[in-house]
Amino acid sequence: MPSSTRQVWGLFPLALVLGASLYAAGFWIFSPLQKPSPEDYQQMQQQVRQQWQSGDAWAIRPWWAGRVRETLGDLPNVLVRDLAGEDLSHYGRIWVLILPGYLDELGGPFSDGTYPIEDEREFGKLTLRRYRLPPKAQVLYNFRERLQEAKVRMFSGNTAKDCSPWIENRWICSNRDWNYVGRMVVELGDDPRDIIWAHPSDTGPIEITYERVPGGRTLLVHTGFTPPAARVLEGAAVTLEVLVDGNLVGKVSQQNQTGYFPRAMELGALGPGPHTVTFRVSCPMIGMRHFCFDAEVRQ
Amino acid sequence: MNFFKRHLDGTIACGLALLTFGVLVWHSQGMGVTRDEGFYFDAAESYAGWFRELAAHPGQALQDETITRYYEINHEHPVLFKNLMALSFLAFAKAPNPPTWPPVQEGAYLLAMRLPAHLNAALLIALIYLLGASMASRRVGLFAALAFMLAPRHFYHLHLACFDMPITTAWLAVIMAYRKSRQSVRWAIACGAIFGLALAVKHNAFFIPLVLLIHWAIVGRKEFSLSRQGLSFPRIPLAFFCMVILGPIVFFLHWPYIWHQTFDRVAWWLGFHMQHVNYYWEYLGTLLTDPPFPWMYPFVVTALTLPLPTLLLCGLGFFWALGDRLGRPLLHVGRLVGRLAGLTAPKDETSPKQGLNDSDGWLLLLNGFIPIFIIAIPTVPIFGGVKHWLPAMPFLCILGGMVLDRMLKMLPPRIGKTALTPNRTFAVAASLALLPALLGTIHIQRYGTSFYNELAGGVAGGADLGMQRQYWSNNVSGALPWLNDHLPKNARLFLHEVTGESFRAYQRDGQLRPDLRPAWSPDDADFVAYQYHREFVDAEYRIWNKTGSRKVMWGLYLDEVPMVLVYDARTHGSGSATPAIRP
Fold this sequence. Notes:
Chain A contains four helices and 18 strands. Chain A is 17% helix and 38% strand.
């Protein structure tokens, strides 16, 4: 190799270091200029509030951005990491607030045209998009929302004992602090989920019974364990049985995994109702079984 | 003037020390109290009581009952540094603020408690310079000292009354003394005593002999032989004997708690660290909970937290020195590859011997690698991020300075009419290489545990990558002014992840209103300052469960990444988040 070539190659590491220095200095000088200002957020929230409709929700990219909750935290929102993979069938439209540099993060139905963009505006460094979603799912009955109307019992052998009267957001089944059936937000997988906490008991199954539930096409159930529960080695599966008018229509065996796992059960053949729906939760070994579920009847 | 010229290295070292001390004293105003500091402050105040007792009733102060009364607290760590904090507290802490607002004084308590940390930082930066200057040149020493100090995570840790920087100083001091001990009996004795002080700072010191033994074996490798006459090996350095003898003596003397029931108490201390719990830690989108941990962890975290030019220089410097030390095998491989590629092997224009001698080279390499390697062992707890392998960094920074110097020597002697003198080119290149570290340090302000470098994409990039966003709860200090201004009188405040000791320290220091009462969970709080931690997201959801709302009152954001979110937790299920009334 000629000596001049060697010399050039010899200078490569120095050039790399100096180039990296320039890049890094530029990074700290220019990246703060990309930050949205408080005024950007203020204008954006005014726009959202002015055009907000029932059935709307908002989301933000990147998932971790939080400042918007100061201004829009009281409105329905979808705070999940994978927005493209999320079931948005509860909403008719979704407002997506996008920080600089995160426009490309919206993939799947947001970029392939499944969710058409109705409106797009810039507020300083913020981008606000409103997407039209497919027709909303017709939810006839949401079991979490109506948990207060349920009858909750815990079995001890063959004897059933009613859990306490409704207190704040839960039915308390014993003086063990985990032993209740309550309306909670917990972490399932990587995201917060609105669920019914139904930790199984070692004395026998827990039954949550709803009267006068309208019939529909599908009963959609989500189940999952919290991350701490799923970390337990050899954690036992929890069984959720769904009975309609005393007949078993579905059974979910939730394995020891964190997440928010859907399961649809057919109700069409059972007629328009009203029905009595019972969720029965049981597990042979209950240590750290932070089991959660939600359910709704859809048309 | 002649004195300074004759002692130029000492003068520069003193200048660096003064600069470091001044910057830290100025910058530590408003720096949050870490979880560990809260415990150490309480311990130091307790130990101060023992010093008072010692002055008043020396005989009684030496009784086990008295010692235990004062030293039982926080006996999971030796007390050298906490004793210094206790003395500083006795000397400089003023009387507590009266329970009025605004405070009569702000910052005096923390300054007194952190004064030993600032002095330690000054010493550390001076020592880095001296070692770099001694091994290579003044400009290399200067670069290494500044590269270490300006790295944002280092700069943050330099402020704290914790043991991570003191053990870095002690580790470096032992190595420097060991290096000099090869020609001096006095330095050998000093090495033993300093090793004792290192043990008295933190248990990381147990690994120093391992490093030195490996160094001894490698440097003296040619003197090992096995023959009919038996095994022969290089002369065992006097420093080793001094470390074995003086180390335990100094360690014993510094810690009154082990003057009685010595073996039981030392065994408890060692047992505590042998079975330390694994705190959860977020790493590349995964919550690390139990071993085995990824062996790449300390390398990846270093790569994402050291300023990019510093990282490159440290990496290049390490591999350059390693190549020099392993020159022959590497050279052979290089020649072979060259021949296979049809090239003639390049001449080695810069002889390895030109730079570092064998002993210094291995000292830098081993000390730059082993503290990181220890954390890479999959069963070793990984919480705490970079602070647990800080002792490696001074050595890597020196290697970084040396490789920069060496690379600049490849430039032509002049470009046009401009002569490229070594000092001039080095000053320009070093300034450029250190500029991002300085800018990053300014950018991250007092929230050093949240710093991620340009490679990661800054704080936001760290959040995208799923890296630990913050730890030690100190970022809450950014929320205190807002809380002081907006919370109603006597409100119950849950400072998430902040210990009771730290809560008291904020009030004692005049950073938090004295009427605010600590709450221990969102359930019994009026207001919550939640700090995002992947493992504690449940704490935030508990607020949502209680209030029925996700609305945030106020937040501390770094590059839009939420660090601390303040919630009004007074409402139950109504979702109201009405701005509170000023007190």
